[in-house]
Each structure stands twice: as C-alpha cells, then as structure tokens.
Design a protein that fits this description.
The chain has ten helices and eleven strands. The chain has 378 residues and is of the alpha+beta class. The protein has one domain: Beta-lactamase. β8 and β9 form a beta hairpin. The longest helix has 15 residues. The N terminus is likely disordered.
C-alpha cells in the first residue's frame, strides 16, 4: 500500500552538502510543494516504510506524509506522530550546558575534571567543558561490541546502561587528540555532558529537560523516556531488516545514547524548539553566538574543516545556509534545520529499515534537496 498526503502546515528536512555559495535567507521564495511531494513519494519501498516532512517559516509552509506507520495494518503515517529524534537530542543537551554557564554554575573554559572528578582517566589532559559541545574534546567513541550487529541489538534491546557504563567503554582507550585541536563527532562527549548537567543541578536529565526547555516553550509532546522502551501513540513503527525480514524494533531502551540521543518528540515540537531557541527564548545574547560559531579546526579524519558549533551543525543546501541536527535510532532517522532568521524551518522523520553507507538514507538526501528549494518569487 502506498499513500501520500499533502497539507498546508509547517517544518521539513536537511542532510546533504552542496558547494554553491550561500544565499541570503531573505531571498527565499515559497517552498516547492511538487519537489517535496516527489521526495517522499512511492513509500513503502524496500528501504523505507514511511516518512513525514513539515516545513514552516516566513517564506511559507508545507507538510506531507507518505507510506505506512505499520506494515501489518497498512495504517498511514500520521503527521502528528511521535518518533525518536536520536542525535538531535544533543542540541537540547548543549542548551542545558549553555544555560548553566550563563547562570555561572559552569565555566565553559574549566576542565570537565573539575565537575566530574574521577570520571576521565588520570592520564587525560584537561578537557574544557566547551569542547564537549563542539566535538573537539578528543574523547574516544563509545565502544560497545555488537552495537551495530542486528542480533546483538535485538538480544539487548531492553537492557539498562548507566551513563558512566557507556562512557567507560570509550575511556578505556587513549584520548584521540589534544582537546581543541580537531573535531570528531562522538556520543561520548554528550553522554558526559549529560552527566555534568545532572551532577551540577542535582536533578535528573529528564527533570532538566522539562524545567529548562519543554515547559518554557510549551513542548508538551517532547520528553526523555528514561528506561521506558515504548513510543506513545500515534507513532510509526520502526523496523530493522534482518536477513531480508523486517523485525519490529519500535520498543527499545534508549539508555545507551542517553543525553546524546534518547529524546522522543514530534515534527511540530521540533520546529517550535528550534524557533524558540533561535529567538533567544532559551539562552541569552552572551551565549547565543556559540550556536553559530564553528571552530576553525580540521576534522580528525581529514575529511575537511569542522562543521559543528556548540550544539548545532552548519550545512549549505542549494545555496542556503541552515543550522540544525540530524539524528537516527534503529528504525528512525530524523532532523531539524532552520535558517538563522527562521525564514525556513524544516523537520522530518523517516523510517529506514537498513543503514546506508554514509549514515543518511537516500530519502533523507532527497528531502534535504527538496526542502531547500523555492518557487520563483512572483
């Protein structure tokens, strides 16, 4: 069963670089509904069961869904459905740390070791807190054997891991590089940042999320699930292709990614979150520039210059500069991006059944291309 629904609404998607010089966001025309519809048409297929896209901003709005939310019942994807936002969680964690900095409860230039004594190995150099947020800490990657093996995933899907257990799998390795000299994307830094937030505040990550972000912005459908493996209704089911058979992986404890990737939300709430953030409703003018400042260092793997700020990722899509974050969990790939002046805001969620070689499903790249295009101005 294949189904595409197009309505007028809000927010959409991004995840592929172009080499075109960035245009002024104010030059944007209205979103291109034909391109957006085509980007998500034809679902379900062998790699993706469903998709939803939501575009909003001063330049216009659009929303659409495609595919099914359940391969057994063939129920359509709901535009208001919940999904796992994966690594987009990192933006929320970065906001919490920046809020604590503006409250003078954390000094971003001080080492992590000051706030979390005994967590990092004694032979590690001082790791400034700010380097956790822009992936320049040098902390090694989480190293859990089997984490990308479907059989291991299914066998361990309901297990609880403490943040310390997760971080310790990485810290048995030497530091990758001297902090501040390169950029390497890693969950380790953000799980550590979540530990820092809980230690400094004396409150759980879930409580900090509510008090600092979701309640102030009225995001009633965004939450941290702790050990609850379920997704609330409505939600598209997530599937994993295991030897040619789709296995439902919707239910899964998210304690391994934790503060780096466990939040559950909706497309509308993602759009409201980034809108409120860019409007200065969560952090003040002293901290705001950190969201849009990419360090002038190379990527550790030599793939190019750094692209992450303290919390966000900078992308150029069809000549438009956008800021945001992608995220993925088993059965879910999603993201939120916006121009800095909020002329265009894009949120999306798709349900891939396989991992693509570069980590981004082909449909996400199609959505990114379509969402960053505009109709000619009248």
């Amino acid at each position: 069963m294949k189904r595409v629904i197009v309505t007028a609404a809000v927010v959409a998607v991004a995840a592929a670089f172009t080499s075109v010089p960035a245009a002024a966001a104010s030059d944007l025309g209205k979103p291109d509904p034909a391109a957006l519809s085509a980007a998500i048409a034809g679902l379900p297929d062998k790699e993706t069961t469903g998709a939803l896209v939501r575009v909003t901003g001063d330049s216009g709005s659009w929303s659409g869904t495609s595919g099914v939310s359940d391969v057994r019942t063939h129920a359509p994807v709901r535009p208001d459905g919940f999904f796992r936002i994966g690594s987009t969680t990192k933006v929320y964690t970065a906001v919490m740390v920046l809020q604590l900095a503006q409250e003078h409860r954390i000094d971003l230039e001080q080492p992590v070791q000051r706030y979390l004594p005994g967590v990092l190995p004694a032979d590690y150099p001082p790791v400034p807190v700010r380097t956790l947020l822009d992936h320049t800490s040098g902390l090694p990657s989480v190293d859990i054997p089997g984490l990308y093996d479907p059989e291991w995933i299914l066998a361990h899907r309901y297990e609880h891991w403490s943040p310390r257990q997760v971080v310790d799998t990485a810290l048995r390795h030497p530091i990758d590089f001297r902090p501040g000299t390169a950029q390497k994307y890693t969950n380790t830094a953000y799980v550590t940042a979540g530990m820092l937030v809980e230690t400094v505040t004396g409150q759980s990550y879930a409580r900090n999320l509510r008090d600092r972000i979701t309640v102030p912005l009225g995001l009633w459908r965004t939450y941290y699930p702790e050990d609850d493996p379920r997704l609330p209704n409505p939600a598209a089911r997530g599937y994993l292709d295991v030897d040619g058979k789709l296995v439902d992986v919707t239910e899964m404890n998210q304690s391994i990614p934790g503060a780096a990737g466990a939040i559950i939300s909706t497309a509308e709430d993602l759009g409201e979150f980034i809108t409120g953030l860019f409007q200065g409703r969560l952090i003040g003018p002293a901290m705001m520039p950190r969201l849009f400042a990419v360090p002038q260092v190379p990527m550790f793997d030599g793939s190019g210059p750094a692209s992450y700020s303290q919390g966000l990722m900078k992308l150029e899509l069809n000549g438009i500069t956008v800021w945001g974050k992608t995220g993925s969990r088993y059965g879910y790939a999603s993201g939120i991006f916006a121009t800095q002046n909020l002329s265009r805001v894009v949120a999306y969620s798709v349900n891939p059944t396989v991992k693509s070689p570069d980590g981004q499903p082909l449909i996400v790249r199609k959505i990114a291309d379509a969402a960053s295009r505009s109709l000619p101005k009248e």
